[in-house]
Each structure stands twice: as C-alpha cells, then as structure tokens.
Amino acid sequence: MSTYIDKASLWLTDTFDKEIKKEIKLLIDTDQDQLADRFYKDMEFGTGGMRGIMGAGTNRINKYTLGKATQGLSNYLIQTFPNKQLKVAIAFDCRHNSQKFAKIVADVFSANGIKVFLFEDLRPTPELSFAVKHLNCDAGIVLTASHNPPEYNGYKVYWNDGGQIVPPHDSKIIDVVNSLNFSEIKFNANENLIEIIGEKVDSVFTDSCVNNGTFESTKNRDDLKVVFTSLHGTSIVSVPEALEKAGYNNVHIVEEQRVPNGDFPTVVSPNPEEPAALKMATDLADKIQADIVIGTDPDCDRLGIAVRNLEGKMVLLNGNQTMCLMTDFLIKKWQEAGKLNGKQFVGSTIVSTNLVSEIADRYGVVSKVSLTGFKWIAKMIRDAEGTLDFIGGGEESFGYMVGDFVRDKDAVSSTLLACEIAADAKSKGSSMYQELLQIYVDNNFYKEHLIAIVKKGMDGAQQISQMMVDLRENPVTEIDGSKVLYIYDYDASTKTNLINNTVETIEIPTSNVLIYETEDGTKIAARPSGTEPKIKFYFSVKAPLDAIENAQKVEADLDTKIQRIITEMKLS
C-alpha cells in the first residue's frame, strides 16, 4: 500500500493544481482502497484509445493524464515530421468535462508549436476522422468515452489518414508518453495557433455522408417512416440534417432524448446494443407505425437499428445482422453500377460473423479480416491503396464504415445506408427484415450471441488474465458434440489444427484473443476488452435455411444450441 501512497504523494507537489492536490490529500487521509485503485497503474491505450473514470490519479482521466498523453504525442509528431508546420484537429462529445478537456489538449499542442483546429462545439467522432484528412492534419484527437457510464471519459488518437493509430506509431507514442514526467507538460497555450472550426467542415462532411450513403436508384424515400434517437448524444447535430439532405422527410425524433446530456437521464446505459436504450424510440415507432428505428451512441460512431419482423413486431438487429445487410446491399449497388472487377474488398473482424465472407464470396469480392477495432479496418484500406477498392466494412459491436471517406465507424453515413436499404425494400413490397432472411437463404442462417463478464479493480484484471491462461493451457477439444478443428491464438500468432496437429502462423498483429472453430461451423472467441474491465465471449453458430417461412424454427434451434454451449463451458 505504501507504493500507492508514495506515488500519490507526488501529486501533492507544485506540479499539480490546488484542486487535484486537495482531492488526493483527502484520499490519502480517508480512503486507502480508492487511492490504490487510482494509482495501481497508469492509464493505457487500448483498442479504443485511452478511456476511464474521471478524477485525480494516474489511473484516471484528468488534466494531467490527458496533458501527458498530448505532450508525448506532440514530441512524437515533432520527431516524426521534423521541420514541418504540424496540424491537428480536435473534437469532443457531450460528456461531462469533454469541452474543457478538449481545450486543455489544444493548449498543450499549441504550446508545442502545433497548429490546432478545434471544433466550436460537440461533434460526431466520424467528423473528426473526416476533418483530419479534409484539413490535411498530421493527427487528430476526440474526447469521448463512447457508450460508457457518465463517470467515464476518453481520448482517441487518429493519424494523418483519418484512422486511429496502429503499429508502429501506437507503441512508439506510448513509449514517449511513458518516458515523460508530469512536470514536462507544456500547458501554456499559444492562442494564435488555435483555430475554431465548425460550419464549413460540417457542410462538407454531411455532403460526403449523403454522397456515400445514398444511391440514385432508391425510390420513395418519403414513404419510409423513420424514428431517430440521439440518446442525448452528439448525433443530433448531424444525423437529422443528413437525412433531410438525402430526402428523408418522414423522420420522427424522440424529443425526450434530443438534447445532449452527459448524464443520459432517460437510459441506464446510452448503448444502442441494448434494447432498453431504444425503448422510447420503439414505443414511438409502435405509436406512429414507423418502419425503422435508429439510435446512435453518444459520440455517433455506432448505431442500433430496429425493424419490423414478419409478425410486424419491432425487433433490434444485432451488429452482425446490420453489417451483413449493409455489406450485401453495398456490393449489389457496386454490381449494378458495373464497378465490380475483382479488385474490391470488404472488411470485418475476427470476432464478427463469418457470414460477411460468405456474402463477399458469392459476388467475387475479397473479404479481409482484421483484429477487433476499426483502426485495423482503416489500416486495411491504407495498405490496399492503389490495388484494391474498399466497399465497406463493419464489426459485431454495431459499427459500420461506408466507403473510405471516413476511416472509422460512422453512424451518420450508416444511418443513411440503413434507410436506403429499408426504403428500397419497401418500394419492392419487401422489408429490411425479409431482406436479412433472404441473405440467410442465399448463404446460411448465422446466429450470434455475446456474453460480457465484468471484473473490476486489480483483482478483476488478474481474474480475467487467469481465465485466458486456463483457456490456453486446457483447450476445449469438443463443443456441443462437434470436434474443434482449429484454435486461433492471436497472442501467439498461431493457428493450430487439432486433427493433424499442425501449426500455422497468423499474419496479423498480435492480440489477446483466442478462437475455437468446430467441424459444424461453430465459432467461439474469448477476448478481454482493451478499454473496460471485462472479458467478452462471442458465440456464432450456423445452419442452412431453405425458405424464409422456416426461419423461426431454424433460429430457435440455433438459440438452443448457443445455450447448450454456454452451459457446457460453465459461463452461465
């Protein structure tokens, strides 16, 4: 415990302001457990950047941890691009302190002689990705904690292609950050280097979303009745305008959730993956008999979609279903335009459904699979420039990227694309749900399920680590009566064939993920979160579907199979 006290005592020196020192002194005197949690580690970059609870301490988001990260990034940019007028763009979301933190970050960059484009008010995360490229910046920052609870905030770093940082830059930036002392942070802003931006970038971004997310062949947009909710987040400044520009005029906004609010007062969690978050929207949809419900997370990079099933009931699509619908529709549009020539690709991630690859194969389109996180899909695009064109890509966690004008998941253009799919289906006497079932008929019926086990604090991190050790040292050889064919260990970069006992090398960056695949096409993945104290288990099972009218029975059988597996693995 004395180690934490010694580390915390450094925060009582003149390097830190009075408010921080007062908070730390109180913890030293009254709450040793809380003190330990705040200082047992330093805030780290994960798959989604740096994200955590706000407050004083090295394991918290505050002026000094953000300042140190920004000072380290400034130093790295200066080293990487010498003798250049460096430029960065900064955006922030609706969370508590996001605007204040954004200005602190801008101050540090400017104090290091770096030109800053700072958005005047909250903006969607994808607009920051767009702005980095549009303004020819060398890097970008967005202050957001995505869908985490109100006490969280975060810091995402983008590189000059508009994608989040990837190797080798990420580890090199972290090394520079870790080498710094808090006393080395330059907080004294050069206001002449800070330019406030807003409407001009907004207009170009929105137009680009409309150009990429809509198609001339779509008919009767006014016939599609849409319910939209921003869940108190930033999307309210972009999505309604984009829908209007695209010709969707029958849009009904959930007024109780319109105003941005970091407390997210009408929901337990502002996460569009959860049906409860969209309940107000689906209630409104039932009241007015809407065709589709769309809700976005606080920083507007992910979206949840609810549509009417064959019985007319509103059901929430999962991220894999949405990704498959969008990928299939986009490829068809490329095909109709005569743009498919074998030099196109779609992207997804290792824990997402294999149905994306099946869909792409039917059209002769390359399917690339990356580690979890859109920064890896952005890297795919950068690596393929000049050889393959990117159509679209997504992952199971309710995110999608339409084209490459934004190099991160984008709920603005994805909202437009969802409406295009729904409007197109309705004009043909079909529905978005029926289009999904037809994809299952054409390929296979895939059913996915996710379990997230939360383990907080130091003990939690150790428990999660031990769970992964156990899965590696005592591998499962049979799942629900089907032999395990392959074990993919992305930490060791190995693909082990259990039938012939051969081992291949996996040619993508390492990550703490373990995946089992069986003879009957079942896939189970285990992955500790890079930004939250949890471990996630992803389940995917499949079966043939011969006709849409048999979908309900096949789905019920697959659901039962997933529950058997969960019980078998003692995860229930």
Question: How would you describe the overall organization of this protein?
Answer:
This protein is of the alpha/beta class and 572 residues long. The chain folds into four domains: 40 residues, no CATH class; 155 residues, Alpha-D-Glucose-1,6-Bisphosphate, subunit A, domain 3 (Alpha-D-Glucose-1,6-Bisphosphate, Chain A, domain 3); 238 residues, Alpha-D-Glucose-1,6-Bisphosphate, Chain A, domain 3; 124 residues, TATA-Binding Protein (2-Layer Sandwich), CATH 3.30.310. 38% of the residues lie in helices and 22% in strands. The protein contains 17 helices and 23 strands. Strand 19 and strand 20 form a beta hairpin. Helix 4 packs parallel to helix 5. The protein is globular and about 70 Å long. The chain starts with a helix and ends with a helix. The mean pLDDT is 94.
What tags apply to this protein structure?
572 residues, alpha/beta, Alpha-D-Glucose-1,6-Bisphosphate, Chain A, domain 3, 8-stranded antiparallel beta sheet, 6-stranded mixed beta sheet, 17 helices, 23 strands, 38% helix, 22% strand, A-D-PHexomutase_a/b/a-I, metal-binding
